[in-house]
């Protein structure tokens, strides 16, 4: 038996060149709307990435210039963060006990804010946005006190915070703390709420 190549017909396929007496017109590479659109798209793409990578200012919006104030703030917040972690170890399922822990932790945060507010930043931007950050933080503290009151009333619901311009207030506070290299000044997550 003779094996043939895979999918090969029994008779080999042949081809022949046909001569065409007519002369084909050469293709011209003219300007077409599709080519113009493609060129504009490519230029826009390259321009956008050049702008995004090299021309845009990458300084954080919330960054203040007074580095002494941010260093002082981190020194104030760090021990409070440690105390909040210790307080978290006292977590309990009892609603009154949880309410007391929320109040105690919120009192610590309020004292921390008082210390932060005692000295204002030396730069103009800092003087403009730090009071807003502290006001947001105080709104969060009010939300925490209200949560403790709900716990004492026997409502074991989730903690809810005030949104500001559609953004959770803790996110705004965390962003400011992160942009200014004050991680200990970010609000606590979960912890005694659990």
Note the main attributes of this structure.
5 helices, mainly alpha, 194 residues, 2 strands, single chain, two-stranded antiparallel sheet
If you had to describe this structure to a student in words, what would you say it looks like?
With about 190 residues, the protein is mainly α. The chain has a domain at about 65-185. Helix content is about 55%, strand content about 0%. The chain contains five helices and two strands; from the N terminus they run ααααββα. The protein has a two-stranded antiparallel ribbon. A hairpin with a 2-residue loop joins β1 and β2 (about 165-170). α2 runs antiparallel to α3 (about 95-120), α3 packs antiparallel against α4 (about 125-150) and α4 packs antiparallel against α5. It is elongated. The protein starts with about 30 loop residues before the first helix and ends in a 15-residue tail after the last helix.
List strands and helices in order, with pairings.
Elements: H1 33-55, H2 67-88, H3 95-118, H4 124-152, E1 163-164, E2 167-168, H5 169-179
TL;DR?
By secondary structure, the chain is mainly α. The protein has 5 helices and 2 strands; from the N terminus they run H-H-H-H-E-E-H. The protein has a two-stranded antiparallel ribbon.
The side-by-side strand order for the widest beta sheet comes to 1-2
**Category from helices, strands and their pairing:** mainly alpha
| End-to-end CA span | 81 Å
Q: Quote the average pLDDT.
A: 85
Radius of gyration based on Cα positions = 34 Å
> Approximately how much beta-strand content do the residues carry?
under 5%
**How many helices in DSSP terms?**
5
Output the helix-strand order: HHHHEEH
Q: In which range does the helix fraction lie?
A: 55-70%
């Amino acid at each position: 038996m003779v094996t043939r190549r895979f999918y090969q017909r029994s008779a080999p396929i042949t081809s022949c060149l046909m001569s065409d007496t007519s002369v084909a017109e050469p293709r011209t590479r003219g300007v077409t709307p599709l080519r113009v659109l493609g060129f504009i798209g490519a230029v826009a793409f390259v321009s956008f990435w050049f702008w995004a990578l090299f021309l845009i200012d990458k300084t954080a919006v919330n960054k203040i210039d007074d580095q002494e104030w941010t260093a002082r703030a981190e020194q104030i917040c760090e021990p409070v963060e440690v105390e909040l972690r210790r307080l978290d170890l006292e977590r309990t399922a009892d609603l009154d006990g949880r309410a007391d822990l929320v109040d105690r932790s919120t009192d610590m945060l309020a004292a921390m804010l008082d210390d932060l507010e005692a000295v204002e930043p030396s730069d103009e931007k800092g003087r403009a946005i730090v009071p807003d950050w502290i006001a947001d933080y105080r709104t969060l503290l009010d939300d925490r006190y209200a949560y403790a009151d709900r716990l004492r009333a026997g409502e074991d619901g989730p903690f809810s915070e005030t949104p500001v311009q559609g953004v959770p207030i803790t996110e705004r506070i965390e962003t400011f703390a992160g942009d200014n290299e004050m991680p200990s000044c970010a609000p606590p997550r979960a912890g005694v709420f659990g």
